[in-house]
Amino acid sequence: MTNGDKIRAMTDEELAEMIVHGSICDMCNAHCDSYKTPGDCVHSVFTWLKQEVAKMTAAEHAIENAVSALEHGAEFESWSKTDLNLEYINATAREVWDMAQWVLYVKCQYCDRKELTEDAGTD
To answer: Where are the domains of the chain?
Structure first.
């Protein structure tokens, strides 16, 4: 399955989550700041869409699940008892939970700055 296939197979809910909480730029990991034209970025995304989906590690799944749990208001104890990925990693559940909190904090800081920048430009 390619990255493009994965996106085409998403449910409306998964697609909405991707649009709101992520972007193709975040997933593709291209260094767009080095591109000279918008066509360079389009070419990079096109290439990424044709690549096979990267396999996530158990640690990456655990952090992703913890971030999702935090976004949906779950408690640590509830999440830590249900995430089976924790059995296969060397980090503790608390370490993964703390990392997920940090990820959300950084994500929110970026969103706030982006919104402030966009708001400032509308005056």
So the answer is: 1-54, 56-123
